[in-house]
Amino acid sequence: MPKLHEVAAARRAGSRPELTNLNVCAPFVVPGARGITPSNDCFSAVQSIQHDCLCNTLRIASRLPAMCQPPPLTCDI
Question: Which residues lie closer than 8 Å to 47 by C-beta, 6 or more apart?
Answer without folding.
Answer: none
